[in-house]
């Protein structure tokens, strides 16, 4: 394919970071913005990063998708709580035979995306990124950045490593972003949920950082029980996560620096929580396959209560 | 029996209220106090009550059980978090062939009490009381007050209505306290847990009043699911709670005034939570009978985390 053009839908901590890295490496990138549009169209983007700070004084900034050119790759970098906008903003910017790259957490989003576009490949990307937006057009990249890419096919049927995945991987790697390719996007998404469901959920419910959850024996056990329920959810869709993966995740988190999860940050900033994508969709997908996940359902109910009150 | 004498172990919002009512009605009452001892031994007890305020300028106040006379009825009115003291404070004050009346929440406490006294009848009392201690020796009775009494026998075998229960009931009724007698103490305790486990637990975890929990559809459903797990716990000990009882409790709570539960008050006041008596013991008793209660266990783990952090 070569020389892919990129549209970044949602120029925040995640979309702004990856988009800026791609442009810096020489790719054509178009940024959709909302509240930061004025600032960014005049002054560009600033990225402070542990890998080196840089400034892009001039970027292609838009506040309206209909003014954007069609691009080879449309990067969905909104929070999933904004996904009701996708039907309006994705179709105008994606080329025929183009790619929609969904860089979001949770489950079931690719299934929604294929329903709103035709002749388009949908690729899911799981980002391990620690980044904040600290001001308009100003991104602070704290750590990590790796993306696991997997191509979507009907019902998450695994399709192996495709040429399109490799093309995107090449651009991102050129831009200094570590990429892993997975033959099974759904397996990758469940693996990420093993971490995301317990830590995002309990961090909000108990107002806790990851280290607090792991130091207390009761919540450590609860985290583990929740992880085993995610394993059961994966099994309900025919994906096997070995017990050793769960033990690795627990060990990994014990050894991490104390961490405030993304859902906790959203909660503290009074933003809507990604409860449906991260907790509700896995629950519903497991239920559709006749698996009940009682602890995850309990977390879901508690989070829905807190999310609603937080929005009042 | 006639003319029973009473020792009140724990002269707080509950023990102070019932003890004062008994003394006002002419019973001999001895009050064990801790921090309020000086104040109460000099100035007595004040009860502000929706049923009429009254002052007892002179009460039998003690700060040491060994100075108290042996009484016919020893009323355990401490919080269950203080129950490690029972081995020291109950035996010295209870007459041979006397009664220990346990006015505490939760499960399994009578079993502990019979292990520390001989030749004594143990009666459990379930209090439906809304009362606060607003100052030293100063009690504010807001609402309710009814007590359900049931006599304990080995393994909570139901023993029907006994003469001792009737004798206590007579004194309390003379003092203006509504009494219900139950033939099956364990059934009564499980019934109370149908309310106490979901509302006490979730009110602390979600920082919520009863009306907030019932207005939100997600937590309302969670409350109901927790109630059905309590029903399962009761079943594990051979006690049948009909579904209609659960629906009555839900309806009753919807129609109550917004209420801050006793566990939430303890939490807000930085006092230890009665997690073990109210949540841990039911879990362990069900587990010993091979019943698992996953949602109640999840609540327990969350509460243990919060209780520990609250005590730091």
Automatic annotation (TrEMBL), chains A, B:
Domain Ketopantoate reductase C-terminal: start-end pairs: 185-305
Does the keyword section mention Oxidoreductase? yes
Give residue ranges for domain Ketopantoate reductase N-terminal.
Answer: 6-152
* SUPFAM superfamilies per UniProt: 6-phosphogluconate dehydrogenase C-terminal domain-like (SSF48179), NAD(P)-binding Rossmann-fold domains (SSF51735)
Q: Coiled-coil region(s) at which residues?
A: none
EC number(s) of the enzyme?
1.1.1.169
Q: Which reaction does it catalyse?
A: (R)-pantoate + NADP(+) = 2-dehydropantoate + NADPH + H(+)
- UniProt entry tagged with the keyword Magnesium: no
Give the top-level enzyme category: oxidoreductase
Q: Name one GO molecular function term.
A: 2-dehydropantoate 2-reductase activity
Q: Keywords assigned by UniProt? A: NADP, Oxidoreductase, Pantothenate biosynthesis
Q: What does this protein do?
A: Catalyzes the NADPH-dependent reduction of ketopantoate into pantoic acid.
Q: What does the sequence similarity comment in the record state about its family?
A: Belongs to the ketopantoate reductase family.
**What is the protein name given in its UniProt record?**
2-dehydropantoate 2-reductase
Which organism is this protein's natural source? Okeanomitos corallinicola TIOX110
């Amino acid at each position: 394919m070569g020389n892919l053009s990129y549209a970044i839908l949602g120029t925040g901590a995640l979309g702004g970071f990856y988009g800026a890295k791609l442009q810096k490496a020489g790719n054509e990138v178009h940024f959709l913005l909302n509240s930061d549009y004025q600032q960014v169209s005049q002054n560009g983007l600033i990225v402070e990063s542990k890998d080196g700070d840089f400034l892009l004084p001039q970027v292609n900034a838009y506040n309206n998708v209909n003014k954007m050119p069609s691009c080879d790759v449309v990067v969905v970098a909104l929070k999933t709580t904004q996904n009701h906008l996708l039907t309006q903003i994705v179709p105008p910017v994606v080329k025929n035979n183009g790619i929609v790259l969904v860089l979001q957490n949770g489950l079931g989003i690719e299934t929604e995306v294929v329903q709103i576009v035709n002749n388009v490949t949908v690729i899911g990307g799981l980002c391990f990124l620690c980044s904040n937006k600290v001001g308009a057009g100003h991104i602070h990249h704290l750590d990590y950045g790796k993306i696991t890419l997997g191509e979507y096919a009907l019902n998450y049927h695994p399709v192996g490593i495709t040429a399109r995945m490799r093309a995107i991987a090449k651009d991102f790697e050129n831009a200094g972003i570590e990429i892993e390719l997975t033959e099974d996007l759904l397996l990758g998404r469940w693996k990420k949920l093993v971490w995301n469901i317990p830590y995002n959920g309990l961090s909000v419910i108990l107002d806790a950082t990851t280290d607090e959850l792991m130091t207390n024996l009761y919540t450590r056990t609860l985290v583990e029980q929740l992880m085993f329920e995610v394993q059961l959810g994966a099994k309900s869709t025919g994906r096997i996560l070995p017990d050793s993966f769960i033990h690795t995740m627990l060990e990994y988190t014990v050894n991490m620096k104390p961490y405030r999860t993304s859902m906790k940050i959203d909660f503290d900033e009074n933003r809507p929580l990604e409860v449906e994508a991260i907790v509700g969709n896995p629950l519903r997908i497991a239920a559709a396959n006749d698996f009940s996940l009682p602890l995850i359902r309990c977390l879901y109910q508690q989070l829905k209560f807190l999310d609603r009150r937080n929005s009042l």
